[in-house]
Amino acid sequence: MPKIVSNKNNLQVVYEDNHIIIVNKRAGDIVQGDKTGDTPLSDVVKDYIKEKYNKPGNVYLGVVHRLDRPTTGIVMFAKTSKALPRLNKLFAEKKANKTYWAIVKNAPEKQEDTLINWLKKNPKNNKSTAYPKEIKDSKKAILHYKVLKALDNYYLLEIELETGRHHQIRVQLSNIGSPIKGDLKYGFDRSNKDASISLHARQLQFIHPVSKENIDVLAALPNDPIWKACEN
């Protein structure tokens, strides 16, 4: 695992080359600017690049994918206009393998399973609902999970997505009675102290679109006692 680099913005860089930068997002960070007006992670990364390389003027940075605000873990950005469309194609063709870890209170009935639902997003409350069959304006959602570890009061799940739908992991786990710790929106009974949810984008594997090297990165777990118990 690459050494984590920190800077004055508390940015954790887990991988960087001429074309790509991958960071470990903290809970509460937004990837791109929105109506809140809060400083997005993309701006923090631009400042980091500008300072590290003494770049004059504007810094180019392309947003490749996003994570929900209360979620932590791997987010990748393109540092060049050459890399961005290639990375977008990589994700569109599902050639980037993302692995998530989630902490849940209730163990799923099966140790491992594939969940298939049709999700429909309600933009008014920014929430998705899972249905067993296709309905109007719904999108098919597929994920695979397995229980990695039983903790004192929780269970650690590893999740791999086949599709990338709105709040997919959150709503599909909630639908089987295993809402993610801290996720009030999808049925957990209390929030985490830092307003996070215990969902972490743990690993990303892909073939570098320029160098053709095999890239495999891990994002360190949040500094929290329950997450730390997952490492032991």
Describe this structure in words.
- With 232 residues, the chain is α+β, with helices and mostly antiparallel strands.
- Helices cover 16% and strands 33% of the residues.
- It is built from 4 helices and 11 strands.
- Strands 1, 2, 3, 4, 5, 6, 7, 8, 9, 10 and 11 form an 11-stranded mixed β-sheet that branches.
- A hairpin with a 3-residue loop joins strand 1 and strand 2.
- The two termini are 17 Å apart.
Overview in brief:
With 232 residues, the protein is α+β, with helices and mostly antiparallel strands.
β-strand amount? 25-35%
Number of beta-strand segments? 11
Helical percentage: 10-25%
Low-confidence stretches: 1-8
Tally of helical runs: 4
The 3D shape can be described as globular
Q: Which structural class matches the secondary elements?
A: alpha+beta
Give average pLDDT, whole number: 92
Spell out the helices and strands N to C: EEHEEHEEEEEHEEH
Rg measurement, Å:
18 Å
